[in-house]
Write a structure and sequence with these properties.
A hairpin with an 8-residue loop joins strand 3 and strand 4. The relative contact order is 0.10. The longest helix has 24 residues. By secondary structure, the protein is of the alpha+beta class. The chain is elongated and about 85 Å long. The chain folds into 2 domains: 116 residues, no CATH class; 70 residues, no CATH class. Helix 6 runs antiparallel to helix 7.
C-alpha cells in the first residue's frame, strides 16, 4: 500500500526545509500547465489589482513556488520516509511598496519512491474517493435531502436513496471480464466504479427501447447507441 499525507509545518520540519541547499529547490510545475499543449490565452485586465494598489491595501503576492524533498523519520516510526516540501515565496506589499518577503512551507510525507515530487504534490491535491461519495450521495441521488418530518423516516429515506448508489457499484463489480480483453475490461470496470450517478443513469437506465411482443416473447430493441452499450450488454448477459 502506498500513501501520500499532508504533514504539519512544525518547527523541526521548517528547519529541515530551510537548511536544504538552494540548488535542491526547483520550480513546481502545476498539473494543468503540463496538460496544456497550445499557447496560453491572454488574461483579462486585473481591475481589482489596480484598485488595491491605489487604495494602499496590504496584499500577499505569490512570487514563486518551488519543490524539494528530504528523508524524515517521525518519532513513532521505525524507518525513514520521503518528505516532499513545497516552498512558497510570498511578497507582502502595501500599494506599490514591497514591505518584505517571507517563505511558507507545505509538507507531504509518502512511502512512494517512484513518483516525482511534482506528482506527489498533484496526488495530494486530488479529491479523495470518500469526498466524491459524499458529493454523489448529496447532489445526485439526494440521499441527504431529508424531505420528511421525523428522524426515523429521514433515516429510511437515506437508506433507500443510498441503495441507488450501491446498485451502481454492484453492477460494476458484476460485469464479467474476459481473459483475452482483461486490460480493457478492467479499465471499463474502474471507470464504471468511479462514474457519477447522472452518467450512470443516462448510460445504463435511460436507454430508449422499443418493446415488441409476439409469439409468446417480449423483445427490447435498443434504438440508440452509446459508448457504454457493450458494457451494458455484458452486464445483461451476466445477470
Amino acid at each position: 500500500m502506498r500513501f501520500v499525507f499532508g504533514y504539519d509545518a512544525r518547527a523541526n520540519m521548517v528547519a529541515k526545509a530551510t537548511g536544504l541547499p538552494e540548488d535542491l529547490y526547483h520550480d513546481l510545475v502545476a498539473k494543468a500547465e503540463q496538460a496544456i499543449k497550445t499557447s496560453l490565452r491572454q488574461r483579462p485586465v486585473n481591475v481589482k489589482d489596480a484598485v488595491v494598489k491605489e487604495r494602499g491595501f496590504k496584499t500577499l503576492r505569490q512570487r514563486s513556488v518551488e519543490v524539494s524533498e528530504f528523508s524524515y523519520r517521525p518519532v513513532a516510526c521505525e524507518h525513514d520516509y520521503r518528505v516532499v516540501v513545497v516552498r512558497k515565496n510570498i511578497s507582502i506589499e502595501r500599494g506599490d511598496n514591497v514591505l518584505f518577503d517571507e517563505y511558507r512551507y507545505l509538507f507531504y510525507i509518502t512511502n512512494d519512491q517512484k513518483m516525482t515530487p511534482h506528482e506527489v504534490v498533484a496526488e495530494a491535491h486530488q479529491r479523495c474517493d470518500q469526498e466524491n461519495l459524499h458529493a454523489q450521495l448529496k447532489g445526485e441521488v439526494r440521499a441527504l435531502h431529508a424531505p420528511v418530518n421525523t428522524l426515523n423516516a429521514n433515516w429510511a429515506y437515506l437508506v433507500m436513496a443510498s441503495l441507488a448508489w450501491t446498485l451502481k457499484a454492484w453492477c460494476a463489480l458484476l460485469v464479467p471480464i474476459s481473459p483475452r480483453w482483461a486490460d480493457k475490461h478492467n479499465a471499463e470496470r474502474r471507470l464504471m466504479l468511479g462514474m457519477e450517478f447522472r452518467t450512470f443513469r443516462q448510460a445504463f437506465i435511460e436507454i430508449p427501447c422499443q418493446i415488441v411482443k409476439g409469439a409468446r416473447q417480449v423483445r427490447w430493441r435498443i434504438l440508440a447507441w452509446n459508448p457504454w452499450l457493450g458494457l451494458f450488454l455484458r452486464l445483461d448477459a451476466a445477470l
